[in-house]
Amino acid sequence: MAGGKRSEYMPSEDDRASSFAQIPTSFGHELRACLRCRLVKTYDQFRESGCENCPFLDMDKEHDNVVNCTTPNFTGIISVMDPTRSWAARWLRIGRFIPGCYTLAVSEELPEEYQALCADNNVHYVPPKRT
Ligand SMILES: [Zn+2]
């Protein structure tokens, strides 16, 4: 990437195209959160491009995976522009994920077969805390 790190809050359109997750195009009922990384996008966006943090879930190739690995039941959304420097991102354990919109909490666990897939890919999965 040319230009290196910027000091402004908002990255340029160029940066966003290359290293940002898709931003949800609508905030209606079709909005879903990835059960593994909590990225929030619309159902169609997950179906078309998968999850930017979890390509091994193959949501763009196997559309059942979108249904199985994302949920419409989540609480709150924050958008993170620079996860490595955001205390909120560290607190949410998304510090190493790409910038995008994330939910604060999902209530469901990733199904076991997909948890196994995470393990196969050396991906750390943190199940939601039971409350
Ligand atoms: Zn994900």
How are the SSEs ordered, and which strands pair?
Layout: H1 13-19, E1 31-34, E2 40-42, H2 43-49, H3 63-69, E3 70-71, E4 74-80, H4 87-91, E5 100-106, H5 112-120
Antiparallel strand pairs: 1-2, 1-3, 4-5
The structure holds zinc ion.
GO molecular function, one term: zinc ion binding
Family: Belongs to the SPT4 family.
Function: May regulate transcription elongation by RNA polymerase II. May enhance transcriptional pausing at sites proximal to the promoter, which may in turn facilitate the assembly of an elongation competent RNA polymerase II complex.
Account of the 3D structure:
This protein is α+β, with helices and mostly antiparallel strands. It has a single domain (28-120), classed as Herpes Virus-1, CATH 3.30.40. The protein has helices at residues 13-19, 43-49, 63-69, 87-91, 112-120; strands spanning 31-34, 40-42, 70-71, 74-80, 100-106. A 3-stranded antiparallel β-sheet has the order 2-1-3. The longest helix has 9 residues, at 112-120. It is globular and about 30 Å long. Mean pLDDT is 85; it is low at 1-8. The structure holds zinc ion. The site of zinc ion has 7 residues, from loops.
